[in-house]
Amino acid sequence: MYKSPDRFFWRTKRILLPVDGSGAAARAATVAYELAEITKGTILLLHVVNIGMVQQIATMSDTDSLELLTRYIVNGERLLEGYRKAASEFKLEIEPILEQGLPSDKIITIAKEKKVDLIIMGSQGMTAESRGGLGSATERVVRKAPCAVLVIR
């Protein structure tokens, strides 16, 4: 028998928004900003620098891994600032978070640590945008997240 879930979206006060610069992440941001505006919620804006990818690129391109990591961190900070500015028209409380590691693991860890009510993320990241379907990080988050996940195409 169906029982009302007590208006899930109205109870949603802490929204985790992982961003990577992809089109799907931008679309997810629009949904997250609108929902946070309606519910008077907080957006936890997360960008994860994928250390494994940085090391692989450094090895393949014969670039210093620390120098490359620094560039990725600076780009991540710029990305977070761009999303923060885009949210300003909604007058939201934004908490930017820059992490390093495997994106899906960090998303799940942050969701647990920060007691997130909802994760809103794109269906695919930068590396999978042309394939269709769910990206691997999104799929792992959907399977392991401690809260609801809203996936935006």
List keywords for this structure.
single chain, 153 residues, alpha/beta, Rossmann fold, 49% helix
Outline the structure in words.
The structure is a single chain. By secondary structure, the protein is an alpha/beta fold. It has one domain (8-152): Rossmann fold. Helix content is 49%, strand content 20%. It contains six helices and five strands; from the N terminus they run αβαβααβαβαβ. It has helices at residues 8-11, 23-39, 51-61, 65-87, 103-113, 136-144, and strands at 14-18, 42-49, 93-100, 118-122, 148-152. A five-stranded parallel sheet has the order 3-2-1-4-5, sandwiched between helices. α5 packs parallel to α6. The longest helix has 23 residues, at 65-87. The protein starts with 7 loop residues before the first helix and ends with a strand. The model has no long low-confidence stretch (mean pLDDT 91).
